Amino acid sequence: MTAAEPTILATCGGLNPGSWTDSVYGPLLMHAIELARVEGRPPRVAHVNTAGGDQRSVEGPELEAARAAGVDASHIRFFPHRNILNLRAHVLAQDVIWVSGGSVVNLLAVWRAHGLDGILREAWQAGVVLAGGSAGALCWHEGGTTASFGPQIEAVADGLGILPGSLGVHYDSDPQRRVAHEAAVASGSLPPGYALDEGVGLVYGGTRLLDVVSERDGQYAWRVEALDGRAVETRIKPRLLPGATDPESGFDPRPTSDFQPTSDSQPTLEEA
Q1: What is the pLDDT of residue 244?
Q2: Which residues of 82-101 are buried (b: 16+ CB within 10 A; e: fewer)?
Q3: In terms of CB atoms within 10 Å, which of 87, 90, 128, 211 comes out highest?
Q4: From CA 93, how far away is CA 68, in angstroms rounded?
């Protein structure tokens, strides 16, 4: 099985700390697998850590987390050289491509040098779920705000453009991010789009936003638009995924929240 339609899950999440293993697949990563609709065999997930420089030290915990989740995991690596000769065949054989965080600027440059940008678009059209957190969420959009160039947050407007609009990440955990993203959208340096608190994800079917989900209670997504030279934010309350947690009380088993899709499959927005 493949996803019901071309699908992207853009998040501020991924692997979470484990109680027995070092890391576990968090609810957002598990939701990406669910969207792939795999039946009769272990799901195939390729981890791509280009944005973090393909550090081998993170691969062990990822593989351990994958085994615990019953996942057939692999890594696509470009440093010090590419580890997979037939990159297209490997990507198209996956159910989920999960892209981790780091420098989205470096990620885009390396992917384009190896032709992975075009392969990923082909895989998306074929039903492979594209997903990831932070830089692994920004990359699918037209652009976003990033710390790729240093501590100052800057706009990058040359994303892969599979999804329309811009994305901001770490909206609640890094005060610089919100200010810089609002300024970039207000000035027209970035097109309107969305922003994410920690633990929140956007689910796209094709290029339409279908769902807003979270693995943590009390977090939000934001629609960010420009009006008369200023940024206007509208808050979106996400649907809680199974296994989501409430930071105040721990485990929260509620699978749903107040998010309800409208008739045209766009999110219901609240005033911030």
Answers
A1: 81
A2: eebeebeebbeebbbbbbbb
A3: 128
A4: 21
Nearest to 110 by CA among 49, 160, 54, 50: 50
Contact 215, 47 (CB under 8 A): no
Does the structure show a pLDDT above 90 at 2? no
C-alpha distances in angstroms, 173 versus 2, 176, 177, 240?
A: 34, 9, 8, 19
Closest alpha carbon to 117 in 76, 79, 148? 76
Cα–Cα nearest to 35, from 211, 234, 252: 211
Q: Return the structure tokens found at 3.
A: 């996803």
Token pair belonging to 245: 């947690």
Residue 166, token pair as written in the block: 């811009």
pLDDT of residue 265: 35
Which helix (H) or strand (E) covers residue 61, if one does? helix 59-68
CA 163/CA 104 separation, integer angstroms: 15
Residue 262 has pLDDT above 70, yes or no: no
Q: What is the pLDDT at residue 243?
A: 83
pTM over 0.70, yes/no: yes
Distance CA 50, CA 100 (A): 8
CB atoms closer than 10 angstroms to residue 154: 14
Nearest CA-CA partner of 147 in 111, 106, 110, 182: 106
In this prediction, residues 203-225 reach a mean pLDDT of 98
Structure tokens at 185: 């959208």
Closest CA to 138 of 113, 111, 157, 119: 157
Residue with tokens 């094709």: 206
Positions annotated as catalytic residues are 134, 170
